Amino acid sequence: MNTSGDMWVITPSGERFGPASIDVLKRWAAEGRIPGDALIEMPDGSRLLARNHPDLRGVVNAPPTIAGTITSGAPAHDSGVSTLIPYRNVPALAAYYCGVFALVPALGIVLAPAALILGIFGWRNASQNPHAKGRVHAVIGIVLGSLITAAYTIIVILAILG
Q1: Domain boundary assignment for the chain
Q2: Is the dihedral of CA 98, 100, 101, 102 positive or negative?
């Protein structure tokens, strides 16, 4: 069957759409705009049911395609675990642990500045990506990192002046 040229769609209610190429008809069928019982009028004047047309058969009988929605990337369901352990915000989580372990004598010299820096990065991450959570962990890292870094700085200055 020659399907080249423009064709018309005649709906069961008698409405005519076209002329359109086979590519346009395929797109209309994929969108669900051509029912299977519509007539396709060929360029030579012959008519054929859309569900029997060789180029439209698989498309007309298939469910219509609908464009999906764009999501933010945030999970559809959050069990609350990410609030207690902000696993989506690694800098905030690392800042928290560095700050807590900086309380151990001598470890604080290295871990306190790391907690401060990681806490700042964790805060920025939580601000830019609310689903990442971790603001409280970042704040704890910043506060402990700042206090312990200040304490070690004072101890070092006193030891030098001493």
Answers
A1: 7-60, 83-161
A2: positive
